[in-house]
Give the backbone structure.
Amino acid sequence: MGSTGYSNEDMSLETEATNRRLLRARDAMDRSYAQPLDIPTLARIAYVSEAHFIRTFRATFGETPHRYLQRRRVERAMFLLHETDRSVTDICFDVGFSSLGTFSRTFRQIVGETPTAFRARPRRKAVPTCFAMAWTRPSSFGEVERDLARLVSRE
């Protein structure tokens, strides 16, 4: 038993139960991203207080519930911007933002460009994840060192 009076098994069961409840709330955000969602509602889904929900959500998923929801909305907006001809304003409201200004500012913070600029940019071709990961993975076979040695020996 630890200093709290709980065994490690009790703590892991408690952590697992908390994670399941947080996943339930995150799944609700994924399903209902376009609906008005607030912290009290999400905390009720997770069966915890509002403050505890925000704190544990951030510790578990690495971002606040509000930021997670904004990111999900922007991800959906990115898809709609490329796949439809609907106006930026319509997309803004469809993904759950109530203000075009907030949508544009948040989109730019997350994506790095405005929704209009994003839409104008040519879409990249889809590449299987395994290829993208292999292409961007640092080499472990020493090619860089071998190439550098070859360059140095030519000088």
Summary: Residues 8-31 form the longest helix (24 residues). DSSP finds nine helices and no strands in the chain. The chain has a mean pLDDT of 84. The two ends are 66 Å apart (CA to CA).
